[in-house]
Design brief:
Distance between the termini: 8 Å
Radius of gyration: 12 Å
Strand order of the largest sheet: 2-1-5-4-3
CATH superfamily: Dynein light chain 2a, cytoplasmic
CATH topology: Beta-Lactamase
Number of strands: 5
CATH class: Alpha Beta
Helix content: 10-25%
Number of helices: 3
Number of domains: 1
Strand content: 25-35%
Structural class: alpha+beta
Largest sheet: 5 strands, antiparallel
Shape: globular
């Protein structure tokens, strides 16, 4: 699964990929160097349980977007800039979460 998550990070303008268990334990994380401001030290484990009712969503901020996708495996969080192709992120996310 790590190789597939790395493929998401390789998409143009994707800045970080994080994967959590359903309870909020971080299982995987990778950022392009350096991580976007505020995202590397954010308490993701506290936020993930709050995302539990979101099946799929996109949060839009001034300089970044966050794609959140829940599955039976866990919660995938993709941090991306404005130039990232959301269709490609969804396609790769479907492939990862269907494993």
């Amino acid at each position: 699964m790590k190789a597939e998550l790395k493929e998401i990070l390789d998409i143009d303008d994707v800045q970080g990929v994080l994967f959590f268990s359903r309870s909020g334990k971080m299982l995987y994380h990778a950022f392009r160097s350096p991580p976007p401001d505020g995202f590397a030290d954010f308490n993701w484990s506290a936020a993930i349980p709050r995302f539990s009712k979101i099946v799929e969503g996109e949060l839009v901020f001034a300089h970044q977007r966050i794609y959140v996708r829940q599955s039976v495996l866990g919660c995938l969080v993709v941090i991306m800039g404005w130039d990232a192709t959301i269709a490609m992120v969804r396609l790769k996310s479907n492939a990862v979460l269907s494993l």
